[in-house]
Amino acid sequence: MIQGLFISASGMLPKATRQEAVANNLANTEVPGFKRDSMFMREVRDAMRRQSGDYPDWRLNRFEGTWTDFEQGLLRQTGDHFDVALKGQGFLAVRTPEGVQYTRNGSLSRQGDGALVNLLGYPVLDRDGNEIYIPERYETPVIDSAGYVRGRDARTGEQEVLGQLQLVDFPELYDANAKAQTPYQPPLVKGKEGLFIQSPATARVEATNVEVVQGFLEESNVEPVVEMVRMIDLYRSYEADSRAIQVQDSTLERAVNDLGRVG
Fold first, then answer.
1. pLDDT digits over 63-90, tens only?
2. Are residues 192 and 108 part of one domain?
3. The pTM is what?
4. How many folded domains does the chain comprise?
5. Using an 8 Å Cβ cutoff, are 255 and 19 in contact?
6. Is 217 exposed, middle or buried (0-12, 13-18, 19+ CB in 10 A)?
7. CA angle in degrees (0–180, nearest 5) for 252-258-263
């Protein structure tokens, strides 16, 4: 009977973790460039145990790790000259107090000193790792498909190159062999502020399969309806395991208080 409690509890642990991921996905549905998270479960190991004649170890948490879906989101036109969307594989680089981090959120703005920053106020970097400054005299900068940032004089129409956005990529993100490793080590780790942090052993290259689109933002790749269905399904399953524990606990109570009574 105690083994039954272990089995029910082992089913509840990963469901609670997956519910947190689904809730986080729903909370960030409207965040530009957000990439949904999902979970790796220890299904392969359990299948290997069964094929060898052994039994799955239900007493262990079946949660294996987290992975991020980097599928391209839809592009939404905003008309803002400081908004950029990345069409294809690549990331923008920003400087944070913890070092350089990466994002697909191209909602940018200009600070009072002219620095080009993201929504969190972190400077956006150019190809050489320097900050990009847009003088106040250039009210509407031009950002082309290669990421070149130009200032255009409203009177003369002349343009001045102010820098080129640093566009980087991580080939391991698309490597099927790397994804098949157990435990899975993600090339990029999502930080608390939604930016991506490069893992120490991850190779970084210049992005070549990407196009910068000015006046657009990439929407999150979260499908709210799908995530809501997942949330309801997880809740029902979690509730069933919880009821199973309650039934077994009630049975144990009767075994101890009634059956164990000496007549």
1. 566 788 999 999 999 999 999 999 999 9
2. yes
3. 0.79
4. 2
5. no
6. buried
7. 150
